[in-house]
Structure formats: C-alpha cells, structure tokens
Amino acid sequence: MIEKATDTSNSLSFAQFKKEVLNDYKTALLSRQCSILGRREALTGKAKFGIFGDGKEVPQLAMAKAFKLGDWRSGYYRDQTFMMSIGELTSQQFFANLYGDTDINNAPESGGRQMNNHFATHSLNADGSWKNLMEQNNSSSDISCTAGQMPRLLGLAQASKMYRHIDELKDFNTFSNKGNEVAWGTIGNASTSEGLFWETINAAGVLQVPMVISIWDDEYGISVPAKYHTTKESISEILKGFQRDENSNGFEIFSVKGYDYPSLIDTYEKAGKIAREEHVPVVIHVTDLMQPLGHSSSGSHERYKSKDRLAYEKSIDCNTKMREWILNYKIEDNTGNVFQFVKDEEELIGIEKEAKNEAKQAKRSAWNNFKNPISKASSELLAILKEVSKNSKNSVFINKLIEQFIADDEVQVRTNLIYARKILRFITEEDFTAKTTLQNWIKNYKSLFQKRYSSHLYSQSKWAALKIKEVKPTYGKENKLVDARTILRDNFEMIFNKYPEAMIFGEDTGFIGDVNQGLEGIQKKFGELRISDTGIREATIVGQGIGMAMRGLRPIAEIQYLDYILFALQTLSDDLASLHYRSAGRQKAPLIVRSRGHRLEGIWHSGSPMSGINTFLRGICILVPRNMTKAAGFFNTMLKSDDPALIIENLNGYRLKEKQPDNFGEFTTPIGVVETILEGNDITLVSYGATLKLVEEAAIQLRQFDISCEVIDIQSLMPLDISHDIVKSIQKTNRLMVIDEDVPGGASAYIMNEILNKQNAYRYLDSKPVTLCSEEHRPAYGTDGDYFSNRSAEDIFEAIYQIMHESDPQRFNPLI
Ligand SMILES: Cc1ncc(C[n+]2csc(CCOP(=O)(O)OP(=O)(O)O)c2C)c(N)n1
Ligand SMILES: [Mg+2]
C-alpha cells in the first residue's frame, strides 16, 4: 500500500526521515545482538550474570526521540536500547558492564559494582562537584528491586515543578531551564503490582508533575503470566480512574503496541509534550512486547512458556515487525514520486551484518580492556613469585602453587591475589628482597581494588559531612530560656531564607507547621510549594526527596514518627543509602530526612528501631541529637554538606526549655563527634537520644553513693566517634556501659563493636563491658509500659552499682 504524503513532505525531509529510521533500526539490531552475545558470555562464564533488553527495543527508540537534554530517566534493566539510542551506552560499555570492569572509564554505570544493565550517567565530576546537568542526558542510577525506581522518579519530576515556580531558583540553570525537564520512568508489567508503583502514581496525580511512565508489558514477570499479576490483566485498563478530564486533574494515559514504530513515535512525542508543557503526568502502556532470550541468564523460558506462546512471541518481535514496516513502506508525493526507505531486502541485510560485526567487535574490545590489566598483573606477579621461589627454602611448595597459578584460567583480580597471598605464607620466616617485593605488590594491588570496590559509601568531596567545621551556638547576655521547639522553628526560618533550594514536606508539615510546631508559621512565610503537606505515603515522601536532591535541590523530607520510617526503609536503604556507592561516586542525593522518635510510649510510638536503621542505612549519616539546639545544628551542618542524613529529634524534648542561641542558621553540630556531658572516674556511660537524660539522672544519683560516672553523648550514631574519644575516657575509668532503648543486640551492640574492636578499648577494661537495653518486645503503652519495657533511671543506677559492687564488694554492698 502506498501512503499519500502531506504537503510538507519533500525529498529532503524524506531523506532525513529515512536516515533516522534506518539509524534507529540499526540501533535496535545492535542492541539485540549485544543481548544475544551478552547472554552467551554469561552462559560460558565470562560474565557472572546477564539481563538484557531484548524484545523491547523499538518502543525505546521512540522514547529516546522524545527525551531531551536535561531530562531524567528512572528505569530498570530492560532499557539498554534507550540508553544506546540517547548515546549514553556504547556497545563496548555494554560489555564492559557485563564483565564487571572496575575501570569507571570503561564501565561508566558503576565501575563494576552493579550487575549489568543497571544504567547511570555521571552527574558529578570525579571531585564530587556537580556537572552541568542541562548539557547532558541524565539517567539516575538503577536498582535491582523492581518498582524501587518509582519513588525517586516522583522527586526527579517534582524538581521541575520547583524550578518552574520558585522565582529564586531562576539562576540554577545548570540544573533546569524553568522546569521544562521531563522525568521518564520505565517499569515492567509485573512490577506494577508493587505498592511503590501505586503510591507513586497517586502522588504524581496529586502533585501534577512532569513524568512519563512507560510500562513495558511482555505479559510476564519471569515465569508468572499476567493473570496472576494484574486485575483484568491490563494495567492501563485498571488505571483508567486516574485519567484526567475537564473537571479534575489526573494522568494522561496511552496504550500502544510495542512493535508499532510509527504509533510509538507519535505517542511518545505527544506524551513528552503534555508532560513538558503542562506538567501533567503521563502513563504509556506499551503492550505486545516479548522476551526472545527469556528473562535473564539464570534460566530459560522454554521451561515455562508453551510452544504456542513462544511461537506467538516470535510473531510479535518488535525488531522483525519494524523490518517488515521498513520493507513495505512506500510514500508518494504530489508529483507522483514514490519514496522508500530501502530499495530491497539486501540493504537491510547489509545493516544487519554491520550491527552484528559491531557487536562482535565491541565484545572483543571490552573483553581485552577487562582482561589485559589483569593479565599484565599476572605476568608481573609471576616474575616476582619465581624470584621468591628461587630464594626460598620452601620452593617445593611454592613451585606447586606457581604451576597451579599458570594453569588457572580464571580472569579475575582475585586469582592473582589468591596465589600471591598463599605463597607469602611459605616465606614468613625468611628474609630476602623478593619477599619485600611480594609483600608490597600484594599491599598495593589489594588496596587498589579494595578502593575500586569500597570507596564512596559516604561523600569523599570537600563537602563531606565529616569535613564541616563546628560552629558553636552563641548566646546573648540575657540567657533566655525558650520552648525547645521554637529553636527549631527559628532555625528553619533562617535556613529557608538562606537556601532558596531548601524545602520541607511531609504529613502535617505545611499548614499546621508539623505536629510539634517546629515549623509554626513557616509555610505562611515561604509558601505552599516549599513548605508542604503530603499524603500519608512515607516511601514516596523519601522518593520525592531523593529525586529532588539528585537535581540540585536541598529537600528535607519529614517522616512524622520514626516508627513509620519502616514504610520507607526499602527506599532509604536500597536507593538513598546506596546511591553514591553504587554509582562509584558519580551521583549524589544530599537529602535530609527529618523524623522524631524515642519514648512517646506505645508499640508504634516509641520510636527506637535503631538497629534496623543502623544496619540498613550505611551510607547515610544517622544523627541522634539530645536536644533541639543540637538538632538545629545538625540541619545547619548537613545543608553545608553533600552527604545524606537522617536527623532524629527527641519526641519528648520539644516543650522542654533550652537556652535560645542568637546565631540561628549558623551554628553547626559536628558529625562523628561525641560529647562528654558529665565527667567522672569510675565508669564510662555511653548513650544517646532520650535515654541520655535518664543516664544523666542516674549518674547524678550515683554521686551520692560515691560512684563517679563519665557520661558521653554519642550524638552521631553513624559515623560514630571518628577521633576515638570514648576509648580515652575508658583509659581513665576502665569500665564501660552502653545504654539505649533499642532491643538487646541492637544499636548498643553496634556501638560496643565500635568501641571494643575499632577503638581497642578491651585493653583498658577492668570489668566486663555491659550493654543495657530495652526488653526484646516492642515497648508497651503508657508510663508503666515504658517503665517495664525500657530501662529506667533506677535500672541504670542498679546496673552501674552492680558493676561497682563486683569490682569492690567491700566498698559497695549488694543492693538486692
Ligand atoms: C522487589 C523485587 N522482587 C523480586 C525481584 C526478582 N525479580 C527480578 S525481575 C522480576 C520480574 C519482573 O517482571 P516485570 O516487571 O514484568 O519486568 P520484565 O523483566 O518482564 O521486563 C522479578 C520477580 C526483584 N528484582 N525485586
Ligand atoms: Mg514483564
């Protein structure tokens, strides 16, 4: 069939169109070839694991066309064609990622830290400073947890809204051009069953942010077909209630077949325009996709798909369909000239050959780049080992190992280290030059790769939290005592004046100024955009924060009570805490999460699930200020820093009196620094947060009984006591007790490990080091529930007294 061209069609624009179509087709083919070869590399053991974008190539070409510089992607492992199409993934990089090349220049996604196809662009220079994000395509770093990309997507989109509507952000032009950037999300059909998907959809509808979510629907989630995933087996069908209309905001929803190239291009263009211009979220349900190679290298889909299903999938392969479309396409202009993309099939076969060769070549180069430095190190090492053997009395054993080393064909850094380290064991008692050479070689080689795998858990830039200098609060002559919550409030006012890029949001955060009035009147001063109320949706509150922080803003996400942080723990742990690490320092989200906890008395109002937080959130500063001045100081510190933080305010501290500082917005509480709040000689008591007051109370009572306690406030649970001040106290007291309101073996065990193992305090102990924690169950309701669930001042008194009794029974008679 010959289509009639419109007036605008002429030979020049057709030539451009043709070039684009054929170029797209080549990208789709190249991507498919990479998947095919990639799978083989994984199955033959050259790569550990492989997951690919086959069967989803064509819609991604269309998405790439609508994607503009400065835009953001938050997607998942199927997006390789998109990444290739926007020029952010070469086929060589594709293979380098697959092999786990630790050279970030070869494998820019993560420098070998992530499985393949976990895409990321670099937002940061090597020194941690921001790049101009408007001059590049941006992809936030993927995580493996399906749907985990959704909360972040919300924030990436919301940033545009902030940049469009907040006048003071006009000059932030390396991050935004008046908020014209779209955040593009992708998710698999099966993963739309996750709560995070629905939470994000609802929040985006409420917030009206520029995001376009593509759902790649291949009717499967690994082996499980759609009927087990989705009501009515159609996500666009059940999303219909979100469709906007004349009377209400909502989404624009499209459904399009994944092999229909022209319709896809049309749909993506429309979707991009709606999101970009109107700031309305869009869902594109891309149906009729498939997986020619199955889910991943871990299995084969022939196991669970019927022959009919496999044949059907083959018949809708988007690349084959695109080929057919190209071959059949004919268009005639007004003068009767007929235009075609290709003369005949031969031309396409030519392109197909090119794509195959390119993929093969890319694979080879990537493998060589991965392998050569390892082989070079092997040769270097071999020479050293031979020299060692020559000089050693144990050459019989050493030669055996050398033989095994030569025969070992594993191409991994560890292979070199395994043999080097095993051989070193045989020469401990000997002394010759080659031994020193081997020792140094091991040290250097190991440390090089240790860094490649372990750097950037926290910021290493000049804005690292640990580098922010302390500025003490200053007080006027009058020494005015005020309600502690007003210290936070007045400090927040300074913050929002000082940083136009700062904003705060959460449940009851805006209009009433948070449940404890720490933001009283602030929304009136700074507007509903910057000081805002949200729905009850902790995960996407955090996601809003992550996405906005990744785009140069300084969000403060409020989780109303610490107990409810568990709803957001997955996002905090998998996404925020790992972001800087998993991108090998090339992305950051300096988000501050504000929460309040400790001792409101009740199973879900006690607020001390510290051990979970502590364990899951490595990579985030966990700050536990004992009062509101300290808390305000932490906000000021973190706003100068590019590390993320969780600041936990003391629930029962808001109405206590504190001295009013006069340098609001300026004073800082240092990170990783403990504070001795009571000096003493007999025992060191280490605690934090609300428990600290009880510890102090007990310590004062113990003085009456001749026991002198040194009380240390940890303040910063993570990082903890970087200058090892606690052990200095133990050198004096020779006794240690860690007290908190977490479960036994929780945060106190972590603290104990830091003190005993990292600070080597065991050397100075005269008594058994003790932890004093809550009961194992959640704290029961009410004052007595607290008294019997947590440790009281009496419990603390007696526990300390007991230690003193054991150390000097003559002087301290038993209590009970
Ligand atoms: C939260 C979570 N649960 C389970 C998995 C294991 N898993 C990986 S991919 C996958 C299926 C995803 O299917 P779908 O969303 O349709 O994407 P597709 O792979 O089909 O493109 C599952 C269950 C995971 N990665 N994350
Ligand atoms: Mg699927």
Overview of this protein structure:
The chain is α/β, with parallel strands linked by helices and 816 residues long. Helices cover 44% and strands 12% of the residues. The chain has 25 helices and 25 strands. The chain has a seven-stranded mixed sheet, sandwiched between helices. α1 (11-43) runs antiparallel to α10 and α11 (345-391) runs antiparallel to α12. The longest helix is centred in the middle third of the chain and has 47 residues, at 345-391. The N and C termini lie far apart (99 Å). The model has no long low-confidence stretch (mean pLDDT 96). Thiamine diphosphate (TPP) binds at residues 78, 144-146, 188-191, 216, 218, 220-222, 295.
Helix content: 40-55%
**What is the β-strand count?**
25
**What is the terminal-to-terminal distance?**
99 Å
pLDDT averaged over residues:
96
Strands ordered across the widest β-sheet = 14-13-15-16-18-17-23
Structural class: alpha/beta
| Proportion of strand residues | 5-15%
Rg, nearest Å: 31 Å
- The total count of helices amounts to 25
Largest sheet: 7 strands, mixed
* Each distinct ligand: thiamine diphosphate, magnesium ion
Principal-axis shape equals globular
User: Uncertain spans, ≥5 residues at pLDDT below 50?
Assistant: none
